[in-house]
Design goal:
The complex is a heterodimer. In chain A, 31% of the residues lie in helices and 19% in strands. Chain A is α/β, with parallel strands linked by helices. In chain A, helix 9 runs antiparallel to helix 10. Classes of the chains: A alpha/beta, B mainly alpha.
Chain lengths: 388, 57
């Protein structure tokens, strides 16, 4: 082969590789560029970037908006923290349903729908699941990102060999350096995820948040599925809320935050702020390791034959029936009901901290689906529409 | 500390870009292993480094 032909072949191969790269990363680029839309309710008061509370995250993807719904009537305050783990989508979707439908008659509510925005911009390596899922509404479909558990390496890299939690000095897995729910209370000079945790802790301290509700989903092979995990200062409220929910709405357990398990919101926010720290988990078959294909349908319905086999053999920590699965409606409805009940209990235990708040109930979501509570951005006033 | 972290973080992107350039150079200018299979390997191996250098993946 002469030199000209050789160069031609190599140029062709290089162009083919670049073309393959462009085509093969279509979903990756789309996921990173996509912005979710939320139409906030008429109770919306203001929004501010999280960097308002700590400048060390300004200009990064972690500088997410904090939405405030203030009644103007003295009372307590609540922070709803969604999306700490992006691959648990009932969490940010619950936050969006709250933001779109909330009414506040006493106290104020702060909402962060995507606490780890960076984690929502990539998929989990090796899990081969779709980048998005769609929720049907009366006016069309609304698209949301699925995301990963940890901060995108494009924002924070390299990982240490072992992540040493601050300030406990407990050794955690290396990838936990990018896990927002292992880096609390955070530190101002730490890595980006630690700085984000610190910013959230600062928000809680400066705004004197009475209760922080961190919203998660759990695999069904994980003991704390369908559970409140609460700091010891909040355990009585959680126990009451769990009993009432189990009697009237859906099964809910409660567990007190272990003192030796460091970095999690239910431990560190309780220890390092005055806030009552509560974490909620729903059953999410999608993230279990033994399910079949991780499709959008599995994300939305939670129906999986292998999960049923595990249930039949008594290997799960929550009831499971493949006929009903664990739908996104069920999981979001649980979170809406769980948050409302524990907030109500805070008002019962501490009347000065009462927050008068309402949003779609578990029963309403189970009857109509969450799509009925998501509004059309095309028909909403521009001042109430946010891209997120 | 944050500055140092950012420096290390950005160094990875620069290194990825340099390796991509090195691979392109080796694709076109190498004296040993001139066969088609090696051309394909060099061209294909560029992809992850370009993706990282461009902040795509």
């Amino acid at each position: 082969m002469n030199d000209r032909a050789l160069v031609g072949r190599r140029v062709g191969l290089l162009l083919a590789s670049l073309a393959l790269m462009v085509v093969g990363t279509k979903d990756i680029r789309a996921l990173r560029a996509y912005r979710e839309t939320v139409v906030v309710s008429e109770a919306f008061t203001r929004q501010a970037p999280l960097s308002t509370y700590f400048d060390g995250i300004r200009g990064t993807l972690m500088d997410v908006p904090v939405f405030v719904f203030d009644s103007g009537v003295p009372g307590g305050s609540v922070l709803i923290l969604g999306g700490a783990h992006a691959y648990e989508p009932a969490s940010p979707v619950m936050a969006y349903v709250v933001m779109e439908n909330i009414t506040v008659t006493q106290g104020k509510v702060f909402v962060i729908a995507r606490a780890n925005m960076s984690a929502s911009t990539l998929g989990m390596l090796g899990n081969a699941y779709p980048p998005f899922f769609r929720v049907k509404t009366p006016w069309g479909e609304k698209t949301y990102r699925i995301g990963d558990r940890e901060t995108n390496p494009l924002e924070q890299w390299p990982d240490p060999f072992t992540f040493v939690h601050y300030p406990s000095a407990q050794n955690l897995a290396y990838q936990d350096s990018r896990n927002l729910n292992r880096t609390f209370p955070g530190r101002p000079g730490g890595n980006l995820t630690e700085r984000t945790s610190f910013a959230i802790s600062e928000l809680i301290r400066r705004e004197q948040i009475d209760m922080t509700i961190d919203v998660h989903e759990a695999s069904m092979g994980y003991p704390v599925v369908s559970t409140y995990v609460c700091h010891q200062r909040a355990e009585e409220m959680c126990m009451m809320a769990a009993m009432i929910l189990s009697a009237e709405q859906f099964p809910m357990k409660t567990e007190t935050s272990p003192k030796s398990l460091r970095g999690l919101t239910h431990r560190e926010i309780g220890d390092f702020t005055e806030s009552f720290a509560v974490l909620m988990e729903t059953p999410e078959p999608f993230i279990d390791k033994f399910v079949g294909p991780m499709t959008e349908a599995l994300m939305l319905t939670g129906k999986d034959e292998f999960m049923q086999t595990a249930a039949d053999r008594g290997l799960l920590y929550a009831e499971y029936d493949m006929k009903t699965g664990a739908t996104l409606d069920y999981r979001v409805g649980r979170h809406l009901g769980g948050a409302a009940e524990v907030i109500k209990q805070m008002g019962e235990f501490y009347p000065a901290k009462k927050v008068g708040v309402s949003w779609p109930t578990y029963a309403a979501v189970m009857e109509k689906g969450i799509g009925a509570f998501l509004h059309d951005p095309a028909k909403a006033a521009a001042a109430r529409v946010f891209r997120h | 500390m944050i500055l140092l972290q950012e420096l290390i973080h950005q160094t990875y992107f620069v290194l990825a870009g340099l390796i991509a350039v090195l691979l392109v150079t080796r694709l076109f200018r190498r004296k040993s292993r001139p066969g088609l299979a090696y051309d394909i390997v060099y061209a294909y191996a560029i992809i992850p480094f370009v993706l990282r250098a461009l902040h795509i993946k």
